[in-house]
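Quick note —
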Amino acid sequence: MTLTITFCILGLLIGSFLNVCIYRLPIKESIVFPRSKCPACEKQILAYDNIPILSFLFLRGRCRFCKTPISWRYPAVELLNGIGYYFILYRFGPTPATLIYAVFFSALVVITFIDLAHQIIPDVITLPGIPISLIAASTMLPTGWVNSLEGLLLGGGLFYLIAWGSLLLLKKEGMGGGDIKLVAMIGALLGWQELLLAIFSASIAGSAVGLLLIGTNLRSRSDPIPFGPFLVVGALISLFFGNNILDWYFHRS
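Predicted structure written out below.
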């Protein structure tokens, strides 16, 4: 119980840092310096106003100084990361793999919120994430280096072909470079079978949400919908349930 509480608190604290990354990476600011400040009045945020979730509730969702509303995203990211860490520890136990998957989960959280807001997936996460995932999968995870390399090449190669095919046949970009690097990172960490499951899950989720948005007139057919968040959903499905789904599908014992 003590380990679980500690790990969840760690997730909340890291979630606070993830908010810094989500805000600063798209505008190419340092995620280390300077200290966080209110975007409206630009006054530095006090240390005790940075306590995950509690500070947001205590301040009633407003800046202490100028009373400008604070985005719901800040407590949402903190809570999401804390919950994610809980389920990772519950699923994989106190193992080195849990630490790797926790870092992976946090990276996916940052990617999701940046892609939703700016339709970009930062290279600063995915480019180092690819070799780090390959090394981790080869040394600390059950994936293995062969499976990891196959996942990397399959994911990156498949999405690269889709991107080029869209440009050649449809004369428009069907898959962004950020998506290619993201799926390569996912494949390197999880392996090729789990990657295919992630892509399949992402396609179903993306199609369902896209049809829902179009059907409710919240989006038109010409409006772009970022695919990165759906790849993240697919990756998490594979991470937590991939073995069970693949065992069921292939009737593996």
